[in-house]
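On to our target:
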Amino acid sequence: MGRTRVTLADVAAASGVSITTASLVLTGRARELRISEAAERRVRSTAQELGYRRNTLATGPRPARAQTIGLVSDTIASSGLAGDMVKGAVEAAYRRGYMLFVGESGGDPLVERALIDAMHDRHADGVVFAAMYTRVVALPEGLYDGPAVLLNATSATRTTIPSVVPDEVEAGRSAAGVLVEAGHDRGIHLIGAGPGVHDVPPNSIAAAQRLLGLREVFGAAGIEVVSAHRCPKWTPEHGYEATAQLLRTQRPKALVCFNDRLAFGAYQALGEAGLAVPGDVSVVGFDDHPVASWMRPRLTTIALPHHELGARAVAVLVDMLERRGRDVRPPMTYRVPMPVREGGSVARPRR
């Protein structure tokens, strides 16, 4: 005998809320209408436990191709820093004749699962599961219900779902290359991570891979990094503190800061010490954060290609849909190049 369908009324009763409240929570309007976080979490948890699935479209056979893609993110939909990732995905979907539904989870696993279920209820052809910064993620169960691509993320477990990520190792090579080409062969210090490949902030894929690229190029050029300063957080405050500590004992010729916010703090410490960028000290950053363009001189940085990441993820997913049914395995990882954004923060060293 078939399983009895769980209704919205069942979820409301088991959660101790009204049907209206349950409906608002499960349609993503809880915060908009000031429903308490405790009630929201209780409704979502109950819905998952009971196996409730919203049926937002008329029942019947699933269309062969709905021409829709779902994008579920943690915070990128509302983040100015990575808004271009969503824009790139939207534009790529439009060019290929698809609509893109975007949902934001705030990093809550229950909300992630509910959003993915909602995408499938809307007959989305596939789902892009995205992260604000490159990290290892636990995959929601519903992600395996149809074609999917990870964007700016890799799986914590073995999976057949491909990933689209920035090429952080090559970015490290590019940052080191900028200094080598400018003639820097001594007095180079790292701000943010290192010296060993394990001396990185917790769960930071970017730090480990950028460090690999840096070490490769500096090693090939016979350049020894003088010191490295691991920062638990990549904020201006930590960049300032690490650089100020360095300046108490060293006179650097160049700094490689593991992101632009660290570089912003480094600029302040250098200025307070009476050192000019790039006349006395050259500085390179990563990410092409908006702060890079506010710094004077403008920071030379290796850019995170947010727009291209979003576009590539959609392109990979559509390609999977077009090949569906054929025995063709896509690559497991797609690495998107990170371009150099030239500023005025690097110059030939004074001898």
